[in-house]
Amino acid sequence: MNIMPTGLWVWPWSLRKNGVLGINERNLSYLFELNSRSLYRFADDKILTKEICKKKGIPVPQTYAVINRFGDLRNLERIIGERREFVIKPANGTGGRGVLVIVGRNGSLFEMAKGQMMSLSDLKYHISTTLSGLYSLGERSDSVIVERRIVPHPLFEKLAVAGTPDIRILLFRGSPVIAMLRLPTLASKGRANLHQGAAAAGIDLKTAQTLGGVCRNRAITVHPDTGAAIGGITIPAWDRMLETAKKLSEAMKMGYIGVDIVLDAHHGPVVLEVNARPGLSVQIANRSGLLPRLKIANAQSFPENSHKTAFQ
Amino acid sequence: MLNRYRAAIITAIGLVVMGTAGVYLRLKYVQKQEGSQGNNVWRLTYNIGFPVIKEGKIYIALPDNTAQCRIVRESFSHKGIWMDVLRSKRTLGREAVIVPIVGYKQGRFIADFDISLKQDEKLQVPPAKVKLTPEEMAYYLREEEAVQINSPDLFNIISQLKEGKITRSKILERIFDFCSENVVRGGGNAPADALGTLRQGMGTALGRARAMVALCRAERIPARLTTGFFLKIHSDVRPHYWVEVFYKNNWLPYDPENGYAGKLPVAFLPVRRDGIDIVRTPARDAFQAIYSIRHLLPAPTFVFLPDNRFWSVFDLTRLPLNMQEIIALLLLLPLGALITAIFRNVIGIRTFGTFTPALIALCFVQADWRTGALVFFVVLTVGILARLLLNQLKLLMVARLGIILTLVVLCMILAISILDYMNLTPSASAVLLPTVILTMMIERFNITAEEDGLSQAFIVFAGTLGVAICCLLVLGLEGLGRLVLMFPEIQLFNVAALLLIGRYSGYRLTELWRFRDIAHS
Hints:
The complex is a heterodimer of chains A (312) and B (521).
Chain A (H helix, E strand, L loop, with lengths): L11 H6 L5 H12 L5 H5 L1 H11 L6 E5 L8 H5 L5 E5 L9 E7 L2 E4 L4 E2 L1 H12 L12 E4 L18 E7 L2 E9 L15 E5 L6 E6 L2 E3 L17 H15 L3 E9 L3 E8 L6 H4 L5 H11 L11
Antiparallel strand pairs in A: 1-6, 2-3, 2-6, 3-4, 4-5, 7-8, 7-12, 8-9, 9-10, 10-11, 12-13
Chain B lengths: L1 H35 L2 E13 L6 E5 L6 E11 L1 E7 L6 E7 L5 E13 L15 H6 L12 H10 L6 H15 L1 E2 L8 H7 L1 E2 L1 H14 L4 E8 L9 E8 L2 E6 L4 E2 L6 E6 L5 E2 L7 E8 L25 H27 L8 H10 L3 H25 L3 H25 L7 H24 L1 H22 L4 H7 L3 H13 L6 H6 L1 H5 L1
Parallel strand pairs in B: 7-8
Antiparallel strand pairs in B: 1-6, 1-15, 2-5, 2-14, 3-6, 4-5, 9-10, 9-13, 10-11, 11-12
Helix pairs in contact in B: 1-14, 4-6, 5-6, 7-8, 7-12, 7-13, 7-14, 8-11, 8-12, 9-10, 9-11, 10-11, 11-12
């Protein structure tokens, strides 16, 4: 990994000068102010997010079934049928927790993305622990979604390790302010979540070109596993993605959200989920702080108040 | 939002002002009381070991409340015996009756008494008046093995003391003067019985007390020996003997050894009346008794609150001692929350659960480190092993957690029992809470390990442990529990600090590391 030879830490005013947004400020000034608590469940519960998407005509992975009760587990065999590829995920999971991606099948054995085999009873156990709330926020009881598996776009082949890359677009008051291409790694076990060890490349919002990236909070230029350069890739269907994200952000009625979009080889941009507490590593991926971007976006949405800070 | 920030600051300032006012008023109020009623709390400890003899009951005299001293807390622990606390019919003194359990070779009885003395009185007030029945009267005039009253030598002394025509009170005075001045204190070889002491004019402390009892009884004044403790700091604590004389319907104390007549200092704590043994056992001298006396930390206001004004509800130090301990723990919990908030929001350290570190710290504030280490070791080992095994069975979460908790509890109890068998009794209260908290932490650890990798789980675990240790270092500060109990208004400062942290929008310390590459690029 090509970690830049830098010091161990920087002064806070240096971060301020670079417009870096910290967690406390994100929570106090953005999440609390712009995202109403009562709306969080529409982002946290993927079933509700999908319903909103469907209403607005935003493409989402096709849902095969929703399992709400332990009793429904009897029907699992019928739900799966002859399918060889599908995804099982908790409706209220975060950070890719509890997501099973089945990529192949050998009779009654199901092959996971990592090559591990699972029997039908293994799947049932996984679903029942999910239902009892293992992966949900606050350990409430949960639902399980069985849906179509995304076929990764061939463009990302070199960059995708054991998982599907996705694109996170952060929107402030409906305008995209920053974006990144999230790349699963071996360390992240195929998941695209940065805190689990995934890498990410910043995306220039205007040109759709990827820039340098981030992995485990360090600036990088190549994929940590494959060594392939992560910059200089043009994201296909970029305008459609931005439009999708804006439309969804408007429908969610939240002022500060992250929209996760995957590029399906056959269906183009598909929304996977919405994050009402998007993380801040995206700033490292873009080598750019969020604060100036938020200021510009604010001035655009309230031109008459442009001399004031965010939301007065 | 700026005005929310301002509102938080204004509220915080208001709370600080209120808190300061509270502390000021309390200091003023407490100082006023301090002169009139301080407190003086002592801990008397019995540690008595004895061989277990079949059908041999043992009686151990216990201290009791008197007009000047109050037992604010007592605890017993014993091994190899059944125990019951009874009152003697004749003297109304308290006694622990001990029945050894057959099968044990050695029995042990340990008791702690926290005794609060009324300090504003130097001497004890006379006890309430009582009446003796003729039978009791005869009993307290009896001849005993070491209190001989039928001897020519004794009569000689009596007739000398009775020279001239004098009143009974004068005789009593002379008897006391004789025993405390004419009879001198002897060393270890001096006689310990009444007659020997009187004949030689020299005796041990017990001999002098017995001599006085014998002289009184010979003069038909009911008298008895009293055994007790003198509450002061000394290295070698032994029972002290003095005399109680029944005069004008009162049992009046006389101490020939120290020269107190009629009134004793409040620090004299009677334990057994009409007897010289704290421990009465059929196998005499086959036991070992170690007594110790410790002065507990003073507190400005204490149990003897004279006025029942409503304001005293704000004085938590008036509550019983054992309740105070729990209240002090409760009052420390918010401070733990403040420390956790600082670590999470200002420094930026991840922990399992919000209050887990504070709770862990609190559990160990009152436990000794051995118990703490034991709990920690047993719960973590058993929990992680059980979790590994149960993973194979694939159980639902609540059931799995329940099984792990059960196993942890069983092992915990087994460990306590083993420690007790080895005579290292751990404090049971220190075991209760951490067991549950640590079990939950194991579950969170496992989930994090499965989902985010073992290294992440260890980082968060280390964070939790580190914050817990910092909490422990602060909450365990000598006297802090006392301070929050005396000044509950400290909580207002705590809320003020939490308000400021709650609106702190600056960078977390760890973010200076996390985002370093943006600033460097």
